[in-house]
Structures are given as C-alpha cells and as structure tokens.
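One thing: can you check what follows?
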Amino acid sequence: MGLPEPQADDRNELSTNDVSGISAAPLSTERSSRYVLGPLFLVMAVVVAVWTTWLTIRMPTHHLVRSWDVAWSGFDVLLTTLFVATGIALVRRSSWVRAFAVATAALLVVDAWFDITTAQAGAQLTQAILQAAFVEFPVAVLCLYVAWRADRGSERGRD
C-alpha cells in the first residue's frame, strides 16, 4: 500500500518545480516523519494497553515499598523543576513555554492521581481529594491555559 497523495493542506511541502503535473520534490522529512511516527505511537499505545491489562490482572493489591520517600521526593523535584522552567520560559518569552507548561500540567494530574489512589481511607483520602480539587487540578488548568495562550511570537525570545 503506497503513501497517500499530498493534500492541499500540505502546500508547504509541495514542490513548485512540477513538470507535466508530476511533482519533482521528494517527501519532506516532516511529512515522512508523520507517516512513520504516527503509526509508531499508535503501536506503542497498543503495547501499553496490553501491558496495563496484564498488570491489572497480575499485580497484587498490596505491596510494601522500600524507597517510597525517594520515589515521591524525586517526583516532586521533577515537578518543581518544571515549574521553574515554565516560569523562566514565560519571563524570557521562550518558545519552550508550551512544552514546559503542558508537562507541568500533566505531572500535576499524575500527582493528584497517585495521591488519591495511594491514600488510606478516611482523613488522608479526604485531604488528597481536596488537594486535587482545589490545588493540583486548578493549577494544571492554569498551566494548560498558559500553554494555550503562549505568544506565537515567542520564537523571537531568547532560548
């Protein structure tokens, strides 16, 4: 099965050196990457879905962790680093704002997920839910807003 013909929305990738209606330009790196990386990511999604199903069936519901403090503090150091990176990128009007803000939002949601799912029933669970609802989720939404509103002209900033 061959690659589909270029569409009108691929106009940046079409050659202006057409001879008798046949494009003289090879596939651009961007376009060929799209055809390779898109399916690759879909395959990875299937692999992760199968792995998740296997883990759901096979993993114990209770597990004692030796380095729980290192896992959580390491995660929080990464989250802190992303907050710093997002802040610096905003101040410098860097093109990295979007990436840092989206990554920060994603880690905030992951943080809330693990806080809630690993909390003991009772006060600890209530605290985790309240923290997710009133801190982590709203800040994640703010990060997504920052990413969405990032100035298109940020490429002119100092990276």
